[in-house]
Amino acid sequence: MTDIKPSASSDDCAGCTLHNRRDFLLDALRAGAAALAAIGMAPAGADALPLRWISAIAAKGGERTYPIPAADGVQIDKDNEVILARAGKSVYAFALACPHQNTALKWDAGNNRFQCPKHKSKYRPDGTFIEGRATRSMDRYAVRLVDTSVAVDVDKLYQEDTDLAQWQHAVVTLP
Ligand code: FES
Predict the structure, then answer these.
(1) Ligand 1 and 133: CB distance under 6 A
(2) What fold, for 51-173?
């Protein structure tokens, strides 16, 4: 019977001091966080996007107007049931209702994602479905840039599964 011995590379930290082991673990954690950030998912507690409550500054027909969010984060207009979210140079407007059974969605800042309190469906900051009972991403309103504002057309709501092209284009790209 052959003895199986660990190769020299199977324990990179063999003989390390406690300090070196700690650095080794920190490097591994940082690498994991960077990998999550690269796919748009920040780990719990890291650079949590803030939540603010807002009201439209103007309403005309089906359009509700909001100032351009000054920084990344999530803003909710309860009166109009609109979620405004900025991620980098992209601004989205979502329906507050979960696309599964219309429960009001909540922002989970600790995990940088939306979550439905009813059946726990989860969505990324751009509304993309992650997991849960819902069968599509969050519904997006048509949006356009008007000077220093974002105009949201609450009469034009696009669903990812039936209006894919409009859903994909329902975003304001800031200069
Ligand atoms: S109502 Fe949101 S997941 Fe069911």
Answers:
(1) yes
(2) Rieske Iron-sulfur Protein (2.102.10)
- Give the span between the Cα atoms of 97 and 120, in whole angstroms: 13
Among 94, 106, 118, 136, name the best residue to mutate to test ligand 1's pocket (greatest count of ligand atoms within 8 A of Cβ): 118
Q: Is ligand 1 within 6 A of the CB of residue 135?
A: no
116 lines ligand 1 (CB under 6 A): yes
Q: Which helix (H) or strand (E) segment is 150 a member of?
A: strand 149-158
Q: Are strands 51-53 and 73-77 parallel, antiparallel or unpaired?
A: parallel
Q: Which atom of ligand 1 is nearest to the CA of 101?
A: 1
State pLDDT tens for residues 21-80.
344 333 433 443 443 343 344 444 446 888 999 999 999 999 999 999 999 999 999 999
Q: What phi and psi values does residue 122 have, to the nearest 5 degrees?
A: -125, 145
Its pTM stands at: 0.74
The distance of Cα 116 from the centroid of its chain, to the nearest Å, equals 13
